[in-house]
Design goal:
Elements lengths: L15 H15 L6 E2 L11 H14 L15 H12 L9 E4 L2 H7 L10 E5 L3 H9 L6 E2 L4 E2 L2 E5 L17 E5 L11 H14 L2 E5 L25 E6 L1 H4 L7 E4 L5 E3 L5 E3 H12 L5 H9 L3 H27 L3 E4 L5 E5 L6 H12 L1 E2 L1 E2 L10 E5 L4 H14 L2
Helix pairs in contact: 2-9, 3-9, 4-5, 10-12
Bound molecules: D-malate (MLT).
Amino acid sequence: MIYINENFLKLQNSYLFTTVAKKVSEFQKNNPNKEVIKLGIGDVTRPIVPAVIEAMHKATDELSKAETFRGYGPEQGYDFLKQAIIDNDFKDLGIELDEIFVSDGAKSDCGNIVDIFCKNNTVAITDPVYPVYIDTNVMSGRSGDYNENNGMYENIVYMPTKKENDFVPELPKQKVDIIYLCLPNNPTGTVLNKKELKKFVDYAKENKAIILFDAAYEAFITEKDIPHSIYEIEGAKDVAIEFRSFSKTAGFTGVRCAYTVVPKTVFGYTKTGEKVLLNKLWNRRMTTKFNGVSYVVQRAAEATYTPDGRKQIMENIKYYQENAKIIKDGLNEAGFEVFGGVNSPYIWLKTPNNMKSWDFFDKLLNEAGVVGTPGVGFGNCGEGYFRLTAFSTKENTIKAVSRIVKLFK
Ligand code: MLT
């Protein structure tokens, strides 16, 4: 008899964005003539920039010749890309490190990292939260059951981030072992400054905990004193793993490339108290379960760091930043309470008249043909909130805002 991993049965019916996509496709089937504007999942619309396309073509041609053909590459990524990452993403911030693992996505890495931690670790997440952090811990048995009454999993420590605390999570009151932080935050679009982040680093040091820091949206930071990397914080190299992605930065949501930094100064412990390098475990995990990102894609990622590549991807980021401003200003002027959107491509809005998130979703879809993501899908504290993304075209962004404003006038 084949027994299943019953932890999967604790999960909510389907992954948030799958539920949203299903609802939208049903609506489109029933209303084939209605134009739907999607500001739901954070998927980009700007095409891959010319410098990157050129590098991909060149790399593809290399694969066509016996002398330059490549088969399996290093599981951790080619040195040319790792060096470009170190030089451009970290050296400029004054951070010295070289422990990069190139992968096919920050979502995969955030999900897979749980493999190297003991099932008995206590996990802390913010509420609302990017669902991958919680769902992968549920799958691997680090939570108890889901409590329908309060919308929370047992044995998980929730750190509420809401308007009342300026979206700054409080340190856990009890001892936790693994802390997830996503900054700039998905879904709220808010950030922590260095002082606020330092408190988490100090907590992790004191409690021998680890911070899993998702920096997938760092390229959208516009304000000073907002850290782009957790390693800008003193002591973080001893307690943090950082995830980065080319998805939103360079439009790689379909191309797939990301990386994870696991410094050789971050340790975990055995039951008998022996210190073990997490880098060693992650390396073992990756070499066993992953065969590396394709050569063509890694050359493409490398090209995002060339002067032309940098300039071109920055233009796209600016384009999305302008969309974020269009949404934020437009909704603000119409009387909505709006958060995020300054250092992030996500806009987090309070639903009018305390409308439930899913009711707001249905109203917007049915009456305005605009898709967003219900805040409650990210956690209990997201109830009564709604997330819009800035990744659409400028034209559709303007149209969507005017439709929302008209609907709630
Ligand atoms: C989101 O919409 O939250 C993101 O696109 C999801 C992801 O990056 O996996």
